[in-house]
Amino acid sequence: MEYLVNALYIVAFSMFIYGLMGLTGPKTAVRGNQIAAVGMLIAVVATLISIRDAEMGNWILIAAGLVIGVVLGVPPALRTKMTAMPQLVALFNGVGGGTVALIAYAEFLDSDGFTAFQHGESPTVHIVIASLFAAVIGSISFWGSVIAFLKLQETLPGRPIGIGKLQQPLNALLLIAAVAFSVIIGIKAISPEGPTSSLWIVGVLVLSGILGLMVVLPIGGADMPVVISLLNALTGLSAAAAGLALNNQAMIVAGMIVGASGTILTNLMAKAMNRSIPAIVAGGFGGGGEAPTSDGVVRTAKATSAADAAIQMAYANQVIVVPGYGLAVAQAQHAVKDMAKLLESKGVEVKYAIHPVAGRMPGHMNVLLAEADVSYDAMKEMDDINDEFSRTDVTLVIGANDVTNPAARNDPSSPIHGMPILNVDQSKSVIVLKRSMNSGFAGIENPLFFAEGTSMLFGDAKKSVSEVTEELKAL
Question: Residue 360: pLDDT band by 50, 70, 90 thresholds?
Fold first, then answer.
């Protein structure tokens, strides 16, 4: 039976890796996700077989856990709108980290303070270290993901919430305390004095949980895509550590894949914002609230109408659509697709400019546009599209604030100065679709809205785009 389990694990690992390879391109992403899901199913079956073969565990509890997981996991995944997908990703990721932390706690209790892991005269130190690492990182990931979820859901404000200069010393103190508790547990586990009180492992989980809260609370909404990716990487690493403690190959391999890919993605997104990961974790510019001008000058934006916008785009050679979170909120992707199709029938070339951190999770805009059957070839990444803005007749910005803000390039005093942006302001004409003049998630005024070649089309994005489409039909 052991050979069967190992064979199933190898098949599962192969499907994990092959599925991840599919996620590197939009055209193969769905298939890659399906392959990885089947691989996870095979890994679960292999684990159940190994448990049965070892005659360990209560099968009624195992079955109950599987049923509860399906009941709680499937309905939200089916019903959640794409607008709320970042929240769902944050929540599911947090559940994974919390599960790992609970596994570490259960192993501590089951092994009598990890002392039952001893073989002969010496304990397996690597198992003790792996279990404690899983407890710390899993707890940080869970509670950090809870805060990320609440911020994305706007239950908590998107702006940084912290205690000023005391924030980083407090975080450092919490981390040192959690590590100190873990060291005490580890020393007790390998000493002949006997097991450690369960209060120590509870202390590790509590301190780590508070640290998770205190790390994510001061992080502003504009950094949230990077935070989600970072928490995802932490969950993967904690799962790999738990797999090492449990001698479960599926958890080790899957955790390392998630941890490695999440780390790479986090680094790429941080570079796309020209911000270091330590700077993001230390807290940054936030979201919501007031957006005062830097020089106190009162500026006036120029409003336009759907008819004028339609005329501009109908007689353009090229139109670039820049989607942002406003498009997601209004669920305007299908309306945009219909408008683009009509423009293309008039001989206008339509492209979509995607900033790496547009929206509130990695790839948010790509997924929304793909849902509306927008051609993958029409979706252009920032580095591929930026040189084209200078020869573009009309750029249509739909709810994208911070990633189009020229202050990142022109204003050294701006909190986002140095962040690579889409060169929208270089277009011959810019039309911005917004509900109001409120700032974006970073809470920073955007000079683009007051530029000479920019006009504002106020209202719900979906309704505004539909009105533009109707005007196009009349031309």
Answer: confident
Tell me what pLDDT residue 442 has.
57
The owner of tokens 């051609």 is 375
**pTM, 2 dp:** 0.77
Measuring CA to CA, which residue among 224, 208, 234 is closest to residue 160?
224
Lowest model confidence (mean pLDDT) among 84-93, 284-293, 317-326, 379-388 = 284-293
Give per-residue pLDDT as tens, 8-34. 989 998 999 898 888 777 678 889 989
Question: Which sequence positions are flagged as catalytic?
Answer: 402
363: left (phi over 0), alpha (psi -120 to 50) or beta: left
- Helices 125-152 and 198-216, axial angle in degrees (round to 10): 40
Residue 323 pairs in a beta bridge with 398
- pLDDT given for residue 393 in this prediction: 95
